[in-house]
Design a protein that fits this description.
2 copies of one chain form a homodimer.
Chain A lengths: L2 H9 L3 E5 L8 H12 L4 E5 L5 E2 L2 E2 L13 E4 L6 H11 L3 E4 L10 H15 L3 E3 L5 E3 L17 E8 L2 H12 L5 E6 L8 H10 L5 E6 L5 H11 L5 E5 L4 H11 L6 H10 L3 E3 L2 H13 L8 E5 L2 H13 L9 H8 L13 E2 L7 H12 L6 E5 L3 H4 L7 H22 L3 E4 L10 H16 L4 E2 L2 H20 L1
Parallel strand pairs in A: 1-2, 1-5, 5-6, 6-7, 9-10, 9-11, 11-12, 12-13, 14-15, 14-16, 16-17, 17-18
Antiparallel strand pairs in A: 3-4, 8-10
Helix pairs in contact in A: 3-4, 5-10, 6-7, 10-17, 11-17, 12-13, 13-15
């Protein structure tokens, strides 16, 4: 099936009708129109409003049928009972797709509302593809489409697709991505999925060359069997990271009143994750953390990690955290230990694995030698090193103020050097440290350092737990993908 | 045993000898001396250095024996082989206690070093109590004692004691506390625990009226059986929160090279946590989060939670997260649902539990009515509400700039009002939102709002997962404490 061709008018519409726009600028219709204008939609926009006249400088039309030129996509936000009639207009006009933002369908549990949603499904079969209802729509930077609240979203395209039943998560994930330096090919909030569902959208992403990694938030699949088949086929060549929500009894109930989904069936999902290379995650944070790891870590990322930290307690915590997510921490042999003893003082340090450098930070030269020593160990695939830079950024430790920048800069450049020399991936833990208001400048500095790392392809995380989990997710994926 | 009297000279020394101070200001001895002066130690300080002369404006003495006046405590940072001789000097001088910062003892695995540590234990039995070796010492704001790197620690005392084998965690925890608005009675980094150990120190905290909550980081207990007995006695009247590290195989190995502890024995720890009211946690973050919850949540905090959030996906995530930590989310009856329907629009919201308010934030008036509706439900003990204020702080949502402050201020004051009216505890989730550098001002605003909440006794957390876990820890504790 040529999903690319079929869904092109939806993701890259040349002309868009916005149905349900009123002069009240606080209503969703006007907010969406404003968001489109702010974001810079690249095609033509036709607001539809029975009252006629101009809105935000654009001529309105009484109905979709009255628009004088061809229309690819309709964004619909009229009340639920009116949606079928608008879709009929769209069919008559030859519109190819619709994103139905309106909620108040099957998710209410109300019989009449559920019947209207069934009507939408039947209308779709007659020649229009529907995203929604009960959704925030599509964000596609390349065409200038954006979500309902998304006027100030980043304009750059990137390699990540996010397919989500929750509009709130769509918006939050787009913001989370900024702090991790990645951009999207498409974000699709598809809500109740009355027509286009998780399977259709995944099939599209399989064919979409712009998309290298697929992230998903699913409450209840509409075509479970087909979805599993598609995941099995796609996952070995493009990472598919799935946050399946509602797997607990309480979550399952919440899922029903959110997108009228039937969740549960933990066994089926367990099987999916066991039998395919799909990567399961349990929160938006882990989803974003894992995408970040996939973007920067190579296929050689393995589960045998070398851990470097400053402070014995931190090393113990690191070992526990790695072990809990299934990473191995192989002990170093005598040669590697000897190499590390030549760099570190004997007291207050450890040269086993984890390596304890004894203080929060050592200078760049020593750090390079420590990382190099660890990277040179045959038993190590991947390195996780904690750099508690907040101590220096907050002025609590390290060189005098005039030497701080140089000290930190040397450290920041070290991991990429060692990675390139030894060909082993390095992940950095960059703790926030104190979160008091007085540390806000230190936090700014920390985020800037994180961005510098990113520019060198080094992913970093605020906690060891999150770094270990992201590495474990990537390592497990590549091990499975190699067998598939 | 009168631990208060016995350990008074250690926590509240009137005179302190600092042994191992040189003119090299980068060495630990000088750094510690400087930290003491910066922090404002309230007693007399006698630096000990064989070379004599003055250091940092203080007269030095060739040995402890040469100090002309009585000394309560000695802080020792000479090389390991010299420590026994210094302790002999202390004994001869009648010094009551010593904190031995020096590392390079049993944790190295070296036989000779282990033998020296045994010597320390034997010297202690002759009349001096030792903290350490391989530690960062004691932070006691009331007496002006501070940790090795702790010159800029907060000067206020508070109700929390932290007893830790890791000096690194001692320092980090003291900083974590600032962002959560709590202060310490004492923080004790006791390292290898050659003399005073987890049991002795817990016994002291049991008797110490200044201490209301005891947090602990333990790698390997020195007197396991006695410790369990003390925990069983103390936990029902003072919360004892224990992060037991090294319970995984990899963590257990790391523990040995850190503080020469034998970890493992998961079964024993499982039993401890099942049979006593002690609260188990698995990271420094959870330890600090749980202390925060104990400081503000009453004994009536129960596991039946009412959850309020904006966005259906967020409600589902909340339900899953609560369920995973053992919290119940009872469904509301028709009356409560009716009450909520009168406030919220029918579409895009949910009045079951979790309550989905449909948008990230509603105004203070509506928020107060929603919280009140939930608090009025008999089936609810505790409320967790997400307030995604970063949307407004980052200027992405909500009222125009000139109305933002008033809008947020109204919201900030609401939870305490509802709590006081209904007598039910309320916990707020205050997400960070985007972590890009451009959001740093929004993050500053978020931290300020968190501090405002704290001033009203409302604990807040950046994620639902962390809030749910902290509430579950407190609820479990009070249920167990009531039975003990």
């Amino acid at each position: 099936m040529d999903r690319l061709g079929e869904l092109r008018p939806i993701f890259y519409p040349r002309a868009l009708a916005v149905v349900g726009v009123s002069r009240d600028q606080r209503k969703f219709g006007s907010l969406f129109l404003q968001a489109l204008l702010d974001f810079g939609f690249k095609g033509k926009i036709y607001p539809v409003n029975p009252a006629g006249g101009e809105i935000l400088g654009l001529t309105t039309y009484p109905s979709v049928r009255d628009i004088p030129e061809p229309v690819d996509l309709a964004a619909i936000m009229v009340p639920a009972p009116v949606v079928p009639a608008v879709l009929e207009d769209c069919l008559a006009k030859g519109v190819k797709g619709a994103e139905v933002f309106t909620s108040g369908f099957a998710e209410t549990g109300d019989e009449r509302a559920t019947a209207i949603e069934r009507e939408l499904t039947l209308i779709a079969r007659r020649g229009i593809r529907i995203i929604g209802p009960n959704c925030f729509g599509i964000y596609c930077p390349a065409s200038g489409l954006t979500l309902l609240p998304g006027g100030n979203f980043p304009g750059e395209s990137g390699p990540v697709a996010f397919i989500t039943q929750s509009g709130g998560h769509a918006v939050e994930f787009a913001w989370e991505a900024r702090g991790r330096g990645f951009s999207f090919s498409k974000v699709i909030s598809y809500g109740n999925g009355c027509d286009l569902n998780e399977a259709d959208l995944l099939e599209y992403m399989a064919q979409d060359d712009e998309t290298k990694i697929v992230a998903m938030y699913i409450e209840g699949p509409r075509e479970g069997r087909r979805f599993v088949r598609l995941v099995r086929e796609l996952a070995p060549r493009k990472p598919v990271i799935i946050w399946k929500a509602g797997l607990t009894p309480a979550g399952g109930k919440a899922v029903h009143s959110h997108t009228a989904s039937l969740a549960g069936e933990e066994a089926i999902w367990d099987a999916l994750f066991k039998q395919t290379a799909a990567v399961p995650v349990r929160s938006l944070e882990e989803l974003a953390d894992t995408v970040l790891a996939f973007l920067h870590l190579p296929a050689s990322t393995g589960r045998r990690v070398g851990v470097v930290g400053g402070g014995g307690g931190i090393s113990v915590a690191a070992a526990d955290a790695c072990d809990r997510v299934g990473l191995d921490i192989p002990p170093f042999d005598g040669d590697i230990q000897q190499k590390l003893w030549e760099i570190l003082p004997a007291a207050g340090t450890s040269v086993r694995n984890p390596v304890d450098i004894g203080v929060p930070l050592v200078g760049a030269q020593a750090f390079e030698r420590v990382l190099g020593g660890v990277a040179s160990a045959d038993c190590i695939d991947t390195i996780i090193a904690t750099q508690a830079m907040f101590h220096v950024l907050g002025g609590k430790f390290g060189p005098p103020p005039d030497k701080r920048e140089g000290f930190l800069q040397g450290l920041v450049e070290t991991p990429a050097k060692v990675r390139d020399r030894f060909g082993k991936p390095i992940v950095i833990v960059l703790p926030v440290g104190g979160e008091d208001v007085g540390m806000i400048e230190a936090e700014k500095g920390r985020r800037q350092i994180r961005d510098q790392y990113l520019s060198m392809g080094i992913p970093s995380y605020p906690t060891l737990e999150r770094a270990a989990r992201a590495v474990a997710n990537v390592a497990t994926y590549y091990a499975k993908a190699a067998q598939a």
